[in-house]
Design goal:
Structural class of chain B: alpha+beta
Strand content of chain B: 25-35%
CATH class of chain B: Alpha Beta
Number of domains of chain B: 1
CATH topology of one domain in chain A: Actin, Chain A, domain 4
CATH architecture of chain B: 2-Layer Sandwich
Largest sheet of chain A: 5 strands, mixed
Helix content of chain A: 40-55%
Order of helices and strands of chain B: EEEEEHEEEH
CATH class of one domain in chain A: Alpha Beta
Oligomer: heterodimer
CATH topology of chain B: Nucleotidyltransferase, domain 5
Number of strands of chain B: 8
CATH architecture of one domain in chain A: Alpha-Beta Complex
Shape of chain A: globular
Radius of gyration of chain B: 14 Å
Distance between the termini of chain B: 21 Å
Radius of gyration of chain A: 19 Å
CATH superfamily of one domain in chain A: ATPase, substrate binding domain, subdomain 4
Chain lengths: 237, 101
């Protein structure tokens, strides 16, 4: 069984993943770092002497990694990601509109009208959300637009941008040259956030590619790693 | 353990905070939210994945819904184990009856 783990994970956390897999009935457990799996899933040849930058924005962590020669050269892992965005929206609705919504409703808003830029070329239609009015206690409907949500998410996305810049700063110059040519690959559920690729491209002045089917890039890569257990040296037995 | 039949099968898991995906034979066979619903009285698992997600935020005091992963790592060990077990079971709806060709 191959399971992927965030790159910024501690030894104890790694052990927890391994143990729970073994408890669930796995005989042999191999671990793989998520950015590595994502790179393989996108279709990058990770064993080449060529640098590639992967940004994987998942549910709990955002991982930024530079990969070359089958290993992670430098990485940044921050605990700001999809769940954080959902929480921001929840908080914004409570403060701005005095309406308490559920976690699932907040996630729906993120999916329907979530945006990283306050102005988009193809804006999504406004979204009606239902919750409890904090003043009266009565159920209520409110419509939200994407630019409001872009405003609510701004702070968290800035943190992700900061981590990207930090990772770029740490990159050895030869690999920087490679990244300048190939650009940045964006994957994970966060890649589906409208305008995020544009926003990162603006900030870094590098081309940003969104992976095909970004939600499944990591698992695709993990699947490929499973078939190459003997060959891929970066799998952690 | 009935699950032992499975050990001859090789699977790849993306254990994510939001969604858990399992690949088996090059196909994504499980794509479910990472959540379990647990009966507080007996400690048994009521639902895993999408079904448990439907219950999330709508539970009464005998049911609790747990997201075993937080910030990409396991926060609730027991629930995570139940979740992985439940998701592996989804591979073969008839439980351990599945035999490999």
């Amino acid at each position: 069984m191959v399971i992927c783990i965030p790159s910024g994970i501690t030894e104890v956390e790694k052990r927890a993943v391994r143990d729970s897999a073994e408890h669930a009935g796995a005989k042999e457990v191999y671990l793989i770092h998520e950015p590595m799996a994502a790179a393989i899933g996108i279709g990058i040849d990770v064993e080449e002497p060529m640098g590639n930058m992967i940004i994987d924005i998942g549910g709990g962590t955002s991982e930024i990694a530079v990969i070359a020669l089958g290993g992670i050269v430098c990485d940044q892992s921050i605990r700001v990601a999809g769940d954080g965005f959902t929480n921001d929206i929840w908080d914004y609705m409570r403060r701005q509109h005095n309406i308490l919504i559920g976690e699932r409703s907040a996630e729906r808003i993120k999916i329907e009208v979530g945006s990283a830029l306050p102005e988009l070329e193809n804006p999504p239609p406004d979204f009606a959300v239902h919750g409890r009015d904090l003043m009266t206690g009565i159920p209520k409907e409110i419509t939200v637009s994407y630019s409001e949500i872009a405003h609510a998410l701004d702070k968290s996305i800035s943190k992700v941008e900061e981590a990207i810049l930090k990772a770029l700063e740490m990159t050895p110059p030869e690999l920087s040259a490679d990244i300048y040519r190939t650009g940045i690959y964006l994957t994970g559920g966060g890649a589906l956030l409208r305008g995020l690729d544009q926003r990162i491209a603006l900030k870094t002045k590098l081309p940003v590619h969104v992976a095909e089917d970004p939600l499944r890039a990591v698992v695709r890569g993990t699947g490929i790693a499973l078939k190459n257990i003997g060959r891929f040296k970066f799998l952690i037995p | 353990m009935g699950l032992f039949d499975f050990l001859t099968q090789e699977i790849a898991i993306d254990l994510g905070t939001a969604n858990t995906l399992i690949i088996h034979n090059d196909k994504v066979v499980v794509d479910e939210p990472s959540i379990v619903a647990i009966d507080r009285m007996t400690g048994k698992v009521i639902a895993v994945g999408k079904q448990a997600m439907m219950m999330h935020g709508k539970t009464h005091e005998n049911i609790k819904t747990v997201r075993p992963l937080k910030d990409g790592v396991i926060a609730d060990f027991d629930a995570a184990e139940h979740m992985i077990r439940g998701m592996i079971k989804m591979l073969s709806p008839k439980g351990s009856l599945l035999l490999l060709p």
